[in-house]
Amino acid sequence: MDRVYNFAPGPSTLPLPVLEKVQRDLLCYGSTGMSVMEMSHRSKMYLEIFDRAVADLKALMAVPEGYKIMFVQGGATAMFSAVAMNLMNGGKADYIDSGNFAHNALVEAQKYGEVVVAGSSREDGYGYIPDYTLSPDAQYLHITTNNTIYGTRYTSIPNTNGVPLVADMSSNILSEVYDVSRFGVIYAGAQKNVAPAGVVILIVREDLMGHELPITPKVMSFKKMADADSMLNTPNCFGIYVAGLTFQWLLEQGGVAAIEKLNIEKAKLLYDCIDESELFKGTACERDRSRMNVTFVTGDPQKDAQFVKEAAARGLCNLKGHRIVGGMRASIYNAMPIEGVRALVSFMKEFEAKNK
Ligand SMILES: *Cc1c(COP(=O)(O)O)cnc(C)c1O
């Protein structure tokens, strides 16, 4: 069986060299005579894997001093609660409601304090990044840098005048250059752009630690997790190992700036095809189009379904849009080669010619 071009939104395609390395090392890692899956998380060999992953991520994102990089569990969804429990401090927080996950984050936070919806595009089906008005006395502002389901992204990061900025970067971490010093907290479920499901990348500015509500479970306390170097309990050892391999692969590609250039080129190929087409229409507002998740429709649900089915028969898989929006979505994360995007564009043209 040949590998397909997998446009799934997450879990999603991983770089082939990473999978091949995993396969080579699966039974015996280095000179250990055992699989990474079988190693103690406290062993010297594993700590080397872990420390290298942290160091490589730090280099890739140019994480400044004063920030702690962690790998935690529970998915980005666990971070929806953790952020509120650690930072809300009995006060209030601003949330920008720019998509389904952004909404889930604010609903979760409402359990722990006052949530102010600083801006929302919910009424308009989340087709764009909304304008917002920030509260000067908020404990933090929460944003979702890329809206996976709707295919929108922030083209500029809000200026918060000193209020800590918290970002869910699950679907675009390491796909474009961010100035980490502008953020108080960055978190990302790894299964979109980095690794298999089960690992969360968590980057927290040190002064924001140690203010958690007393009820905060210890595995969700930023301070306790940071003090224990992500090993308060057994971490997702294998997932972190794969994340580390992806970091090495990214460094070999020239780092985030280089992959960003390629991502811009990949997204342009697809959006140009959509904009030139008489059959396909993009669903996200042009200004805010995502480079990671490209959403489009034909306007006819039956034709959409036919497109998805015929594309899959050509090895262009998982193009069905999210169940709450329908249509198509091509997720073109870092690991999707430009050849995959070219193959999709050429199939779209062929499909259009046949279905005018
Ligand atoms: C997928 C996704 C989530 C949910 O992640 P889980 O790891 O399943 O909890 C949250 N936010 C964004 C932006 C996502 O893309």
Précis, in short:
The chain is of the alpha/beta class and 356 residues long. It has helices at residues 16-25, 44-61, 75-87, 100-109, 222-227, 237-252, 255-276, 301-313, 338-354, and strands at residues 5-6, 67-72, 92-97, 114-120, 141-144, 146-147, 152-153, 165-168, 185-189, 200-205, 281-282, 293-297, 316-317, 328-331.
Could you outline the blueprint of secondary structure elements for this entry?
Layout: E1 5-6, H1 16-25, H2 44-61, E2 67-72, H3 75-87, E3 92-97, H4 100-109, E4 114-120, E5 141-144, E6 146-147, E7 152-153, E8 165-168, E9 185-189, E10 200-205, H5 222-227, H6 237-252, H7 255-276, E11 281-282, E12 293-297, H8 301-313, E13 316-317, E14 328-331, H9 338-354
Parallel strand pairs: 1-13, 3-4, 3-5, 5-8, 8-9
Antiparallel strand pairs: 2-10, 6-7, 9-10, 11-12, 12-14
Helix pairs in contact: 1-6, 2-6, 3-4, 7-9
Pyridoxal-5'-phosphate (PLP) is lined by residues 10, 75-77, 101, 144, 148, 168, 170-171, 189, 192.
Describe this entry's structure for a reader.
The model has no long low-confidence stretch (mean pLDDT 97). The protein has helices at 16-25, 44-61, 75-87, 100-109, 222-227, 237-252, 255-276, 301-313, 338-354; strands at 5-6, 67-72, 92-97, 114-120, 141-144, 146-147, 152-153, 165-168, 185-189, 200-205, 281-282, 293-297, 316-317, 328-331. Helices cover 35% and strands 16% of the residues. Helix 1 packs across helix 6 and helix 2 packs across helix 6. The strands form four sheets. A seven-stranded mixed sheet has the order 2-10-9-8-5-3-4, sandwiched between helices. Strands 11-12-14 form a three-stranded antiparallel sheet. It is of the alpha/beta class and 356 residues long. Pyridoxal-5'-phosphate binds next to helix 3.
